[in-house]
# Entry
Amino acid sequence: MNPKGPILGLKPSALLILVAFLMVPALIFAGGEKETESLTLRILAANSIKPMPDSSLVDAWNRAEEKYEKAHPNVKLEYEMMPVSEIFTKFVLLVEQGDPPDIVHLPDAVMYPYAQAGFLEDLTPYMSNRELNDFTDFANSLRYDDKVYCIPVSTDVRVLVYNKALFRNAGLDEDTPPEHWEDVITMGKKLNHVEGEDQYAYGIIAGPNFHTPLMWMPLVWQCGGSLIGEGGKADFTNDAVFRAAGHYYDLIYKHEIMPKTVLGMDEDAIERTFLAGQLAMAVMGNWKFTSLIEKGFNEDDLGWGPLPYPKDGEPATLGGSWNWAVSADTAHPEAAYEFIAAMNTDEFLIEEAQAAFRVPVRKSHANSARFASDPRHKAMIEYSVESGRFGLDTPNPIGFATALITALQMYWGGAASAEEAFSAQEAEYNKTLQ
Amino acid sequence: MLDRSRAALTCHVCVFLLLGAFSALILFPPVWALSTSLKPDKEMLQYPPTILPAQWYLGNYRALFIAMPFARSLLNSFIVSSLSVCLTIFAGLMAAYVIARKEFIGKELVFLLFLLCMMLPGLTNIIPMFLLMGKLKLLNTYAALVLLYSAGNVAFSIWLLRGFIASIPQELDEAAILDGCSQFVILRRIIFPLAVPGITATAILIFISCWNEFIVAVTFTNKETMRTLTVAIYFFKTYWNVQWGSIMAASVLAIVPVLAFFAVMQRQLLAGLTKGAFR
Amino acid sequence: MMKISSKAKTTLWSYLWMTPALFLVLAFFGYSLVYAFVISTHSYNLMRSERPFIGTANFVRYLTSPDYWQSLWITCRFLAIVMILVVVAGLLFALLLKQKVPLRSLFRGFLMVPWVLSMLVTGLIFTWIFDAQVGILNYVLRSVGLKAVPWLSEPVPAFSLLAMAYVWKVYPFAMIIFLAGLQSINDEYYEAAAVDGAGPITRFVRITLPFLKPQFLVVIVLLSINVFNMIDMVFAITKGGPGVSTRLVSYFMYTNAFTHMEMGYSAAIAISLFLVNLVLTIIYVKILKPEISVG
# Structure
């Protein structure tokens, strides 16, 4: 047998030395914070914050960043990025161990509890009156205790997306998406199985992920009800909720125009299914438009419409936003705010909303002529400003969403009746509020 | 006579065919991943799916290196895994030697302690370790990951190495003691060379385990530059946009080095494990 | 007198040599375990600054929580199923590989490939293959006239998918262990039995299986521990869904810690997992004790 040496071909004593030798530079090289003269701003963000290298926003972003860096040469920007699902937890953990980032870029869902727990800095004093009065209704709904803790960049809404080609093949007018729930059913029946057994009329995200309750929530508002009661407690056992949940339940089991496989779908799955031409209509976010077209969907066949609502109800949809916030424990709140302001110039905000097909959060921007050139975008903006609402003003939005996910999955999956599923989850959630 | 050899031949043919069939079945997932990684988005997402890519599209691989410092992730994984292996074998070998060879007070308890460490759910460690590493300012460093991986693997390596060492005849030790050799020399000159297959096997196992580890890596590294491979792959599954092309390409790149390493070392690995690892 | 001092000397030496290993283990596991015990008796929610001592309230909470018992039951079911599959696959492949057929090493290499992938990557690849709408598997099923299976939207298919991905990833280690064990069985036993007129099945049951008892034990123990700690794959494929049908107890613990920020509660659950692992190991060792030697 060939007495080969250990992994690195060295004798044990040499190996010992090597280990020690490697550990030291590794520790230093990749080590922690260094004391420097300049200021370092740590920014914690989801990995979507910076535009992809091939996107049209990259130049705008870089310009804004360069301008800031020129104006503040002694400030070093350090980005820490991670998936959206991790960012909630990571921020809280960092606060817990006393080393939070200076700036954080978070979704609207968590603003309420973070503000309540004192993790965020009140930014109202830093903003001018003009800015404060320029916020759209949606942006204003993000305040906690009437103070601004987060500054939204742009809003998105949930809409109905549909495949015009399938509409034509089913003999329907390609420019008339269903307006009411009743239309969904009648039109859906015609759109079902036009291109074979696997092609369905309607699809929603109903898998065990965060989007599921957000896509469904507006239906409750459309019925004139609400999911959140006094003090932010859950109120799942009212008629509006049962009616809203029942609508999708019927689409699957009674009218059979929605496949049961939606119960396993996340945002990616529904996009793929729509792309493959297997869904005539789907509830998605407006941010999907650019994505669908990039992935090869024919732009002329891509239609959108407001979220269908019941004839005896009112239009409503859910809005969401990505926001800048400053950590309460930061040593440099002014510098942090200045960075946020630099990345939030009118110029950049409008460009961002245009490029990403999102809705501006300043009234002055929403009325800007820049959007008039794209009637589709303009219509989207009007719809959002009118009907978009924020849905998670409760102390524990993650727990809230989780409870809804479980209730919806159990009911739609047939594991429990609506009453059982919703009352159980309502109790579960309210327990966590104590 | 003829019957027996014919039966044996039939048997061998059957075995050969079965092995072939099973191999094809088992290899399908990674091969499909490879095939997918060579298709552009449009082709990848169409239905019915194409079996082989229409053309070899390298855009997914190119995208990996543009979109994020993927090469850096590969390097990070390599550094962390190698250092962990070194530390684990270093600590594990010494401990395994005394457990295999020496009688000392509390030996059963110590061995039980190491055994118990393998049973503690790894998740329990994450929170306290995160807070500890934060206080020590070791977040986003190689050191944090290396220490955690070593701690996680040392018990397992002791279990394995103990078996290898125990299979080495004790007479050799005794002869060396009579010759006046110190313990350290015995370890170095006698045990070590004979246990090399076992050590190699253990080292490979630990390397692969560190290379593929996910939960700890994702919790302890925020910075893009410190990310390991598995975390980088997970990042492609973003909230809105799962880039399957990138995921498949990245997965292929994650598999290839370890696969190559493994193919080369396969013989040693198996020789090591067969030499009485489980006595 | 001499004897005692010599043993003391050996003991000192031994502990000295074990210092690095002990340091790693005590500093990390010891600290974590103690920490887990401490916070499990407090109400520790990351979003709230008050962390009062609440004694055994967390333990009572999960012991009376149907969610916990359901997760435990799901995990046990999962463990039973994958254990059978892993043992069968591992043993089968080991038996096949023991035969002296051409290209044996090549096949052995192929059959070991799942080992080098990470759980996460395996999960992602399987998710892609098993996608209900555009995955290749459902396409094949439809092509041969069967119905496509809604893999991720119904409990039983989702559970099966998770089990299949896990077994695919994990069987090589069982295969190797069994292979090592098979190669240590002296061929003379088989020859003697053949001479006595024993058929292949009898030889298998009477010789092979008993000889492999230590290997069975190792596979079962390591597999149990692994399943109770497994979370990467649940993360990658089902995230506990649909509903809660694939919410393994480890994932249950993870979501309590990182989604609900309930550190104290999840620490209490972690301790319960540890005890379950411990009990399982003791049971296995007791059943197969005669064949095992330690130290």
The two ends of chain B are 39 Å apart (CA to CA).
